[in-house]
Amino acid sequence: MPSVTRPDGFSIGPIRIDPPLLLAPMEDVSSLPFRLLAKRIARPGLMFTEFVSAMAIHYGAQKTFKKMRIHPDERPLGIQIFGGDPEIMAQTARIAEEMGADLVDINMGCWVPKVCKTGSGAALLKDPDTAARIVDAVVRSVKVPVTVKVRAGWDWSLFAAPDLARRFQDAGAQMITLHARFAKQGFEGEANWDLIRAMRDAVRVPLVGNGDVKTAADARRMLDETGCDGVMVGRAAISNPWQLAQIRAGVTGEPAPALPTIEERVAVSIEHAELQVAYEAGVETFGEARDRSDFADAEVRAIRSLRGQLPLYIKGEVGAAQLRARLTNANTVDEVREILDGFLDSLRAPVG
Ligand SMILES: Cc1cc2nc3c(=O)[nH]c(=O)nc-3n(C[C@H](O)[C@H](O)[C@H](O)COP(=O)(O)O)c2cc1C
C-alpha cells in the first residue's frame, strides 16, 4: 500500500509537527537533559516530558515541579500529566501551561500497579466516563491543545481505544497516541499494529502510532501499514539519539545520517552526565552547578539517576560489558569521564 502520510508532518491546533516523529514520554529518561540532546541530534517534531503526577503537584512536591521545566530549544514540547481526579488534573494542566507547555498530554497508558491503583493511567481505560470527564476538564482549563496517550484497552477482551478516542475527540482532544498493546501486557509480546490501523477511521484528529519502532524501516512500515499520522519512538532512543535520527530518515525519506563514532557516543554520554547535574542543581550548565553549595549532592543524585542509561551509550562495543558495573557504581562526572576515557584508550591500544 503506498504511503499516504505526509513526511512534512501534521498540525495540532496551531502547532506544526514536522517531521511526524515523536519522542515518547519516558519516566526517568525523558528529562530535560536527554530531550535537549535528542533534539540536537535527531530533531524530532515533538517531544514530551516524562509523566507528571497531578496529585504530587497538588501537594506541592518540588521534585515533581522540576519535571515540568522547559528549555526554549526543545520546543514544541508536551508536558504529560497523570491522575484520576478531573479537577486536580485540570489544576495541574493549568500549571503545565503556565510552565510553558506547548500542549498538555494526558497519560492513559501507564499499566504499573502504583499508578493504576489510584485510578490513573491505564486504569482509566476501564472507566470511560471518568476518562472522558478528565479530558473535558483539562480541555476547559487550558488554552493550549490537549492530547491523550492510550493503550488499546485494559485487556484483550476489550479493544476500548476507538470508542474512548472518539469520546476524547468530542471532548476536545486534538491528538491521540496509541501504544498498540493492552495494559495487561505490560511490555510483553509484540505491539499489534493492526490495532493502530483499526483505530485510523475512528478519529478525525491526528493519530500517532507507538510500539516497537526500532529502525527507520519499522517507522516507514508503521506509517504505510496503519495510515497513522506520526510515529512515536521510546526505547530505541534511550541513550541512543542517533538511532532516533536514523528513524527520522525513515519518516522523512531523507538520506540516513552517518552513524556516530565511539568517540561521539562517549562525548555525548559525558555531556548527558554534566547536563543532568545542572538539571539536579536547578541551573542550565555544569559550570553554574559547580559554583553552587549543593553541587556535591546534586552531582551524586544526577549520576545515580543515570545508572541505567550511561552504560547503554557504549553498549555493543568490545569491552563495554566489563565497564557496566563500574559505570553503574560511579558517583561523579569525573569518575564517569575517567572510566570512559580509559575505555577509549583501551580501544586505541595496539593489539597483541
Ligand atoms: C523507561 C520507560 C518509561 C516510560 N514512561 C512513560 C511515561 O512516563 N509516560 C507514558 O505515557 N509512557 C511511558 N512509557 C511508555 C512509552 O512512552 C512507550 O509508549 C512504550 O515504551 C512503547 O514504545 P517503544 O516500543 O518505542 O518503546 C515508558 C516506557 C519506558 C521504557
Quick recap:
The chain is built from 15 helices and eleven strands. It has helices spanning 32-42, 54-58, 62-66, 86-98, 113-116, 128-141, 161-170, 193-200, 216-226, 241-252, 262-281, 286-290, 295-305, 320-329, 333-348, and strands spanning 10-12, 15-17, 21-23, 46-48, 52-53, 77-82, 103-108, 146-151, 176-179, 207-210, 230-233.
Description:
With 352 residues, this protein is an alpha/beta fold. The protein folds into two domains: 10-252, Aldolase class I (TIM Barrel), CATH 3.20.20; 262-346. It contains 15 helices and eleven strands. The protein has helices spanning 32-42, 54-58, 62-66, 86-98, 113-116, 128-141, 161-170, 193-200, 216-226, 241-252, 262-281, 286-290, 295-305, 320-329, 333-348; strands at residues 10-12, 15-17, 21-23, 46-48, 52-53, 77-82, 103-108, 146-151, 176-179, 207-210, 230-233. The strands form two sheets. It has an eight-stranded parallel beta barrel with strand order 3-4-6-7-8-9-10-11, surrounded by seven helices. It binds flavin mononucleotide (FMN).
Helix and strand layout, with pairings?
Layout lengths: L9 E3 L2 E3 L3 E3 L8 H11 L3 E3 L3 E2 H5 L3 H5 L10 E6 L3 H13 L4 E6 L4 H4 L11 H14 L4 E6 L9 H10 L5 E4 L13 H8 L6 E4 L5 H11 L3 E4 L7 H12 L9 H20 L4 H5 L4 H11 L14 H10 L3 H16 L4
Parallel strand pairs: 3-4, 3-11, 4-6, 5-6, 6-7, 7-8, 8-9, 9-10, 10-11
Antiparallel strand pairs: 1-2
Helix pairs in contact: 1-10, 1-11, 4-6, 9-10, 11-13, 11-15, 14-15
The chain binds flavin mononucleotide.
